[in-house]
Amino acid sequence: MNEKQVYEGIYDKVAGNLAAAGGVFEYGRNTFLCDVGGHPQRVSVEKYLGLSNLEFMEAVYVAALKRLPDRRTVEFWEEKQGLPREEFQREVLGCLANSSVAAINHICLADNPYFQYRRGLRQRALGLLYGLTDKSNLREFGKKLPAPVQKIIRKIFL
After folding, report:
1. For a designed S-S bond to 109, which of 18, 87, 117, 144 qualifies (C-beta 3.0 to 4.6 A apart)?
2. Is position 129 within any domain?
């Protein structure tokens, strides 16, 4: 039994248990199987190319953003599902490559036949900006400031 068969069995078991309990597995089977064993920051687009348009969109969103697309996003891509496969995939990947979430989390869309993914200035700046606006980091920095400075900051921001 190979690794893929093991994960197929796991998916089938969980989906069966959920169905018996009246629930539905949120991920599609292909979405789950494509994402298994992948690096969290390096999405190998190559293994998603054979999926149908909507399966491709769902699977790549899960791989890159670590969540299912929201309802509005699904509706947007459902309107475009009639596009030829290559055009649809290029648009989805372009959207993800330019997203702030991918930039902040340093997601790389590797093995992409449509365009060469490069982390440009925008992605690097967004990643740095996130580090500066991360509340836990700012809170730790603020605790190191003198008490009078902390009081002034509280008056301004709170």
Report:
1. 117
2. no
